[in-house]
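Q: Structure tokens for this one, please.
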Amino acid sequence: MAIHLTKESKILVQGMTGGEGMKHTRRMLAAGTNVVGGVNPRKAGRTVDFHDRPVPVFGCVAEGMDATGADVTVVFVPPAFTKAAVTEAADAGIGLAVVITEGVPVHDSVAFLDRARKRGTRVIGPNCPGLISPGQSGAGIIPADIAKPGRIGLVSKSGTLTYQLMYELRDIGFSTCVGIGGDPVVGTTHIDCLTAFQEDPETDLIVLIGEIGGDAEERAAAYIRDHVTKPVVGYIAGFTAPEGRTMGHAGAIVSGSSGTARAKQQALEAAGVRVGRTPTETARHVLAVLDSGA
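A: Here is the predicted structure, written as tokens:
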């Protein structure tokens, strides 16, 4: 099994005919992802050939869903148009919207996430690499060739660290890897993924990657303590980050003792989570837990 994305998922790509959309649609198709259509109202009715795989372009998400049965959309549109794109997808009733776009205004994110919640659409992102269930499907920009299928579930704020941990643990493999994004406001959270991995019978261990700023990791620690029975290994990026400076993601800013890597490490360890200080050390913790059968 996997969470949120399986080989049965049918994927639309909003912005497929743009530069980034074309590049990553090509990569998703090469990895076996079932991309069934693109969305661009100015190019509706056309077909784009990807290595002899024709993919139709629809004028809107609802049209694409009606024609193909799509249940996932991946959003590759500029920040100024992201709110409209996600709102359109939610109003069409799609089950999952994966928002890759970086630089989305926070007030736009708040608006489209509220709309999606009311319409029953799960949003991953914005400013995220998407998700991948190795050997089944990938929606977004996570490389498909750095890890095999396995029984580790991974949830991460950071795209780069998602790839790094996947590579470190490539010989063991993953059920699903989810990059939730590092903006101050995102759709799917650490806790949402912890819940899904806890319920997934083919996920044996969960890796949680966080970073400085906010309190998402502290809230995840409280949830793990009360609700998660599977072993969890964590990594927090930013132990050496200077106070008061945004680092990488818009949400990664420390003020005083709030949001520090050390505070997050302490909260997770108090909930029984082994926390590594580097990706390699985190991978060693995973191997130790699996070897011990804990």
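A few notes: DSSP finds nine helices and 14 strands in the chain. The two ends are 21 Å apart (CA to CA).
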